[in-house]
């Protein structure tokens, strides 16, 4: 299991388009990927769940990886978040 | 055969099939299903078809509006594949033995309510996305055509009312006329009809079952004829032919100069609302663009346009106009033109509220992005800028400071830009009264007669009950225009008109007497106004 904490810097927060891109990245991972905010956790591979978290600028999210490619998956998502959100 | 009266906002005649603009709320009946496995199969197949449609829309949008704007269709495809959404539908079919349409409709309500209940405006607006994909699915399940205008045949658009974001999405080549139940003479549909040179009726209480019926839109008499007989059809075909003949005569004016009999040259420019309108400016022989409404870049989308997107749009227009003047009006959003992502508060009185330059000066980041894009594009053509809704000298000075900052930034980055003429819109009585002072600060004035009339007469132009007293020929308005021209000329500031009055040929002679330098009109009116100018002294 790997865990990643990240604070959103994009002023728009994780709105539809970045949420879509994020889910695409997560869906490409073999391991399970969960994302949570304020104790509410959802499957990061499901866009409606991710959007329902209503992630805004300045908020901290936690992404959990569990499975065979968790190491690379964590790195990949980290790079994605830093570049896009 | 049936006739319904309405109010004409633009002349002309159209004959064709009625097509009711569906806001997408289909009614769905709950039905009992025995073979649930087969129903789920039907749902899966519909989902694939819907995704295929979205893929095509994505490709179309990619070419027309660029990747950033097209991405929403990709997000819609992902939503359709979302397992929470899909499982909710398939579980309902399986466990409650109900039809797919009903399961989609209920799931849609549940998910959109979830978004509607969120504390974030932006996310609340996503409820519309859920409804959108669900309606698409239901339409496929019910065998209805995709949301756009179906078939290749042009149609008469029938709607309750059309929002600017909805008209943006219409394929203009398939629209013969507009008929709406609501709207006013100055609504967007009316303005669009004039731009497209097609008839439009408002305030028409059309019957619910009009979809698909043959209709005549009589923009002269203000009537909609439903399923007309041959005699009536013949009569209107003849009127149409006569119109076409007149149009042909006007085309003979192409290539002629815009000079009065006594030799005064008038700059006859065009108003446009998007990159694609340049075609009709060139077709109608416009000698420049006097009003390039930049709002189209901001409307009908869910985030601010980037500097690069704007730059590409402005550059493309400047290049296509090949050295002819292109006057870009900076963002004039607010009032009746809104975009969710701006996060505007609801206003009691939006026409006098937070709009246009007021937004740009309070949120300089938005303004600077646009200015950078315009200045970068100025390297590729003859670009001028004008600023809307000015009421004071301090605004003009503040704008100049920001423009200077933008130019300094571009200089330091060694990005080239051209000479950009600076102008302001004169559309408030305040600007008219101090036009002697403002004239010292800018290169030109452009009089926006629609807003100037509204503010001078204190008449809300969106209110259909006031259409009969909204008089743009009011002496007060004409005096305002005269005063602006005189004060401008004293300071070598040229003066134009870019509102609807610019194309009003019953006033052309008077404007020329007042000394007007430029008239900017909807592309389809250029030749009509040229004809008038050439007949004036």
Largest interface: A-B, 19 and 25 residues
Q: How can the largest sheet of chain A be summarized?
A: 4 strands, antiparallel
- At the fourth level of CATH, the homologous superfamily of chain A is HPr-like
Quaternary class:
heterodimer
- Contiguous uncertain segments of 5+ residues of chain B: none
Instruction: Quickly give the structural class of chain B.
Output: alpha/beta
Q: Can you put this structure into words, describing what you see?
A:
The complex is a heterodimer of chains A (85) and B (537). Chain A is α+β, with helices and mostly antiparallel strands. Chain A is 39% helix and 27% strand. Chain A has helices spanning 16-27, 47-52, 70-84, and strands at residues 2-7, 32-37, 40-43, 60-66. A four-stranded antiparallel β-sheet of chain A has the order 1-4-2-3. In chain A, a hairpin with a 2-residue loop joins strand 2 and strand 3. The longest helix of chain A has 15 residues, at 70-84. Chain B starts with a strand and ends with a helix. With 537 residues, chain B is an alpha/beta fold. Chain B folds into three domains: 2-22 and 148-248, 3-Layer(bba) Sandwich (Glucose Oxidase, domain 1); 36-141, Enzyme I, Chain A, domain 2; 253-535, Phosphoenolpyruvate-binding domains (TIM Barrel). In chain B, the strands form two sheets. An eight-stranded mixed β-sheet of chain B has the order 1-8-7-3-4-5-6-2. Chain B has an eight-stranded parallel barrel with strand order 9-10-11-12-13-14-15-16, surrounded by four helices. Helices cover 45% and strands 15% of the residues of chain B. Chains A and B meet through helix 1 and helix 2 of A and helix 2, helix 3 and helix 4 of B.
């Amino acid at each position: 299991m790997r865990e990643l904490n990240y604070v959103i810097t994009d002023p728009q927060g994780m709105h539809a388009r970045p949420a879509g891109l994020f889910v695409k990245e997560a869906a490409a991972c073999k391991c399970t990927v969960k994302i949570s905010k304020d104790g509410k956790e959802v499957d990061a591979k499901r866009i409606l769940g991710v959007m329902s978290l209503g992630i805004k600028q300045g908020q901290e999210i936690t992404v959990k990886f569990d499975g065979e490619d968790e190491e690379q998956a964590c790195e990949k998502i980290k790079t994605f978040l830093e570049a896009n959100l | 055969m049936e006739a319904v009266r309405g109010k004409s906002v633009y002349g002309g005649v159209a004959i064709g099939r009625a097509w009711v603009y569906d806001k997408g709320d289909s009614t769905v009946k709950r039905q009992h299903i025995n073979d649930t496995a087969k129903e789920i199969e039907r749902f899966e197949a519909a989902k694939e078809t819907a995704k295929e449609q979205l893929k095509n829309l994505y490709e179309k949008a990619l070419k027309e509006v660029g990747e950033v704007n097209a991405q929403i269709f990709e997000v819609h495809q992902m939503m359709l594949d979302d397992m929470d959404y899909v499982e909710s539908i398939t579980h309902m079919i399986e466990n409650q033995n109900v039809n797919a349409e009903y399961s989609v409709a209920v799931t849609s309500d549940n998910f959109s309510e979830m978004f509607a209940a969120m504390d974030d405006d932006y996310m609340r607006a996503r409820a519309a996305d859920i409804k959108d994909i669900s309606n698409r699915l239901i339409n496929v399940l019910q065998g209805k055509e995709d949301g756009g205008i179906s078939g290749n045949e042009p149609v008469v658009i029938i709607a309750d009312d059309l929002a600017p974001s909805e008209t943006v999405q219409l394929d203009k080549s398939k629209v013969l006329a507009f008929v709406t139940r609501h709207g006013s003479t100055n609504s967007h549909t009316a303005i669009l009809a004039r731009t497209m040179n097609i008839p439009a009726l408002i305030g028409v209480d059309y019957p619910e079952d009009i979809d698909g019926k043959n209709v005549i839109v009589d923009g002269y008499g203000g009537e909609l004829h439903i399923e007309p007989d041959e005699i009536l059809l013949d009569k209107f075909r003849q009127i149409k032919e006569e119109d076409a003949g007149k149009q042909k005569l006007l085309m003979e004016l192409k290539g002629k100069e815009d000079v009065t009999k006594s030799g005064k040259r008038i700059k006859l420019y065009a108003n446009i609302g998007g990159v694609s309108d340049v075609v009709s400016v060139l077709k109608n022989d416009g000698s420049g663009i006097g009003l390039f409404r930049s709002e189209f870049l901001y409307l009908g989308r869910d985030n601010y346009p980037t500097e690069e997107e704007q730059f590409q749009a402005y550059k493309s227009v400047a290049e296509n106009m090949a050295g002819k003047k292109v006057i870009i009006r900076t963002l004039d959003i607010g009032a009746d033109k809104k975009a969710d992502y701006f996060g505007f508060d609801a206003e009691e009185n939006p026409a006098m509220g937070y709009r246009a330059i007021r937004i740009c000066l309070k949120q300089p980041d938005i303004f600077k992005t646009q200015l950078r894009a315009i200045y970068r594009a100025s390297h590729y053509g003859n670009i001028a800028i004008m600023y809307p809704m000015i009421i004071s000298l301090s605004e003009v000075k503040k704008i100049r400071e920001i423009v200077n900052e933008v130019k300094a930034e571009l200089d330091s980055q060694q990005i080239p830009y051209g000479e950009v003429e600076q102008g302001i819109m004169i559309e408030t009585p305040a600007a008219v009264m101090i036009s002697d002072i403002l004239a010292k600060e800018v290169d030109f004035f452009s009089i926006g007669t629609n807003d100037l009339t509204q503010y001078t007469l204190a008449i809300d132009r969106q209110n259909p009950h006031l259409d009969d007293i909204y008089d743009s020929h009011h002496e007060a308005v004409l005096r305002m225009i005269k005063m602006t021209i005189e004060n401008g000329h004293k300071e070598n500031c040229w003066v134009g008109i870019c509102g609807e009055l610019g194309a009003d040929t019953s006033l052309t002679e008077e404007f020329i007497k007042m000394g007007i330098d430029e008239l900017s009109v909807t592309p389809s009116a250029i030749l009509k106004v040229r004809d008038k100018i050439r007949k004036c002294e």
